[in-house]
Amino acid sequence: MTTILETQDVVVRFGVLQAVSKASIKVETGQVTGLIGPNGAGKTTCFNVITGLQEATSGKVMFDGKDITNKSPFKRARMGISRTFQKLEVFGSLSARENILVAAEQRRAWDKSGFDPTAVCDEILESTGLTSVSEFMVGTLPTGTARLVELARALASNPKVLLLDEPSSGLNEEETEGMARLLRRLVAQGLAVLLVEHDMSFVMGTCEYIHVLDFGSIIATGTPLEIQANPHVQAAYLGTETVEEAS
Amino acid sequence: MRIKFNAKFISAIVVGVILAFVINKNWGGATFLSAKNLSTFLVVGIALGGIYAITAGGLVVTYATTGIFNFAHAAIGCFLAFVYWQLSVKYHIPVLIAMAITLLVIAPAIGFLLDKVLMRRLRDASLVVQLMATVGLMLTFMGITLTVWSPKTARTLDHFYEQSKGVQIGSVIATWHRIITVVIALLVAVVLRWLLYRTRLGISMRAVVDSRSLAGLTGAKPSIISGSSWALGCMTAGLAGILIAPETGLVVENLALIIIVAAAAAAIAQLKSIPMAFVGGLIIGLSTSFSSTFLKFGTDWSYAGDAIPCIILFIALLFLPQARLETGKVRLTKRTERLTKPWEAGLGGFSMVLIVGLWANGWIPWFSGTNWGERSAVWLGRGAGFLVFGLIMLSLIPLIGWAGQVSFANYAIAGIGAVLFTHFGGQNGNPIGIVFVMLVCAPLGLAIALPALRLKGLYLALATMAFAEFTDKVIVRHPNMLNPSNSGVLYKPLHLFGVTISTDTADRKAFVMFLIITFALLFFMLEMLRRSRWARRWIAMSDSPAASATIGVNLTTSKMTVFMLSGAMAGFAGCMLGLQNGALRVDSFPMFAGLPIVLLLAVQGVRYPVAAFMGALGLASFPAITELLGNPSWLTQLALIGPGIAAIAMAYRPEGAVFYSGRDLAGILPWRKDAREEKALFIAKERAENIEKDEINDMGLSRAFTEDKVAQLDRVLSITDAVDETKMVNTGGQS
């Protein structure tokens, strides 16, 4: 297993507020890495730093052995970093199919393997189970389905790393399980996934490795079992009840 | 960080060198260090800057507290200046009382009314709707002012203490008017600052921008807060209008144009800092005064002085920090539509040709001047004009409708295209010239947008409006572009595909037919483009810039392509505009003339190519209505007020008429079974919602719940097995 994505001592400051302080996260290929922490701990900010939407005050972002700290968001995407958003960022006035197609077509800008975007789009629609709603405008779809569209769109760029910001929010139990199955299948194909999530049973059931963020700092890293046993984490965030529920 | 600093540093040097060159080239020969010149410069500049500062300060206050940039700011000020004139000059009410009535009664009343009727609805609207509605408001206020106070009568507002001498400063006399102006400006600055930072109302006002609901927690009513913002905005606008009218003359266009000045100062303030807005106003005032005192522009650039605010706005844009890619701002509209199929687009285009063909041959009854089978030359000429405007509207669909880049410059680009066409073949009837014009206008469209590409959408709208003004004042007035003495025929008839295209009475019908056929072809092309990856990418970029970037879209180049396409289309429309005008004058392209085109397109629905056709019909409806009503004197400004009010109505119907009529009428088409089903579903859903709403309303939720009300509520909300044991009865009416 190799480290594909790494943040080194990333600091983000908004005025006097230190949103992220010296956060170092590692993401390995072929596994789901979790990033958890209470609200406002800086998880989404970390995502924004990795994808280039937020400039880091200091620190480095390494991807595939290269320093990408100063690269613009679209260049990082072209290198193979894809993401979804905590609050839906779908293209609401395009159909579900077009949402995915636009990403697949965009991939031709850097992926010269001569693939057919339409075929890729159909394949992803099929594998995410979106075929039946493909012609609907995304704005008319229920939130859970729209989230799936967002994920499908991220997959259409054929990323090496997939960053998912609370993928299970707005999903019902059945859909959440489907999401977990999908993630396991994706990592089995060699994708690396970094996951921000509040649903603890989902996190503990899917992630192989977890980083815990609190007040912008990483307070613990380890396997789900280690994290659950970690007293710092319990104190800062999980609370005994949630741990019991998760295990 | 270092790279950014360098880019700014380089632009600073470039701007500095250009300014030095312009100043050196146009130096009027006056000695800079003479006491007289220097004090003239300062006295005039500071007084003028004070007025600009007041209006810019007010604009920034409303923007900072409501999130809406009010393009009507200066037009409201203009209206209030006329009201003040009416009171003080016409009715001989003493100055102070007239001012008090105007600024303390009428201005706040307008502010509160605007807030209630319009602005509150705009808060959560898209940028396109916000811009269109406030630009519509600007045209409406201009139209109302022009209707009430006919521009045929000249009016003047006296300076304060016109008769007295003033104060000697150096070798210059500072009139009392100017001294009073400066004092008032300082007072306004202090009061605004104090109000926003030291009073409860002001702090609530600032909080409202960030979170409407949170601000409610401070105890102030959000409606009162936003109403106060608009009242304050109108008061400053009116004050500035009254102070500046004696300097510029009581002329609607001049006073409404101050919006460019205010926008430039607001850009310097980054739309948020009131002190910087005042500094910005002062910079513009001093620059204007500097140019009038020391510079003497040659006859080639005689109006360059008027363009100073535009130039300052452009420079300010260069130095603004790059906009962040924001997330969490996606708005999802429940639109049920599908892509137009090629044969449907073809049928649509054919229908347009058919309708206009029938009309041009007089086979559709029309208002006046025609017999059956014959269309009057006047109406044919107008028809050609509307179709040319329709072509300009088409050029805006990819730009505004798909890419979400609001530009007010396309009429100006078309104007430049028309002028260029006189050089490139229009004068000897060479159609190749059209291609040349399009090749020039494409990069021109891009160049205008360049300074604003990295900024948020509002700045683009400001920059393009400033460019339209700059075009009118500087570009087309240069003798190399249009010879002012040349008022004769500039264009030879164009022979294209066996058709003679000119504005001659005999050729007009052919011209109209040529225009509608090209229009239909472009319409078809756009419909096909909408199905392509280009349009998909533009729409994606507009719906969520952040998400587009994270799938690898280069936002900058993507925007550049759409600006070039739009510019080329506007250039083509410009050639037609020139041919339709026959001869151009230097004042053929005022900035305000381009606005109704954008507004009417938006009203019809800026995403849909068919809206350009409907928009052209909309333009045609205004002279038709006026004619139908027998050209009454109160309806002379319908061409301004009509689009204005229609655009204001977008606050209530943001998607555009084509969207709503499409939803309602698509089912009429025999092959649209899907639309019929969808509409049936929509109606059923709406009815169900209304029934529930009414039932809940009928219950009167302001009162305490009774047991049977709870049961009724459960039934309405379809809670069948209510297990909650807590009795929601007699809570003392706390709701």
Characterize the structure shown.
The complex is a heterodimer of chains A (about 250) and B (about 725). With about 250 residues, chain A is an alpha/beta fold. Chain A contains 9 helices and 10 strands. Chain A has 2 domains: about 1-80 and about 160-245, Rossmann fold; about 90-160, no CATH class. In chain A, strands 6-7-8-3-9-10 form a 6-stranded mixed beta sheet, sandwiched between helices. In chain A, strands 2-1-4-5 form a 4-stranded antiparallel beta sheet, with helices on one face. In chain A, β1 (about 5-15) and β2 (about 15-30) form a beta hairpin. The longest helix of chain A has 16 residues, at about 175-190. Chain B is mainly α. Chain B has 3 domains: about 30-295, no CATH class; about 340-670; about 675-735, no CATH class. Chain B has 28 helices and 4 strands. Chain B has helices at about 1-25, 35-65, 75-90, 95-120, 125-150, 175-200, 200-210, 210-215, 220-250, 250-255, 260-270, 275-295, 310-320, 340-360, 375-400, 410-425, 430-450, 455-475, 510-530, 535-545, 545-550, 555-580, 590-605, 610-630, 640-650, 655-665, 675-700, 705-715; strands spanning about 165-170, 170-175, 495, 500. Mean pLDDT of chain B is about 85; it is low at about 720-735. Classes of the chains: A alpha/beta (about 250), B mainly alpha (about 725). The interface between A and B is large, with 48 and 32 residues.
Classify the fold: give the CATH topology of the largest domain in chain A: Rossmann fold
Estimate percent helicity of chain B. 55-70%
Q: CATH superfamily membership of the largest domain in chain A, which one?
A: P-loop containing nucleotide triphosphate hydrolases
Strand content of chain B: under 5%
InterPro entries (chain A): AAA+_ATPase, ABC_AA/LPS_Transport, ABC_transporter-like_ATP-bd, BCA_ABC_TP_C, P-loop_NTPase
Domain ABC transporter (chain A): 5-240
GO molecular function, one term (chain A): ATP hydrolysis activity
Pfam families (chain A): ABC_tran, BCA_ABC_TP_C
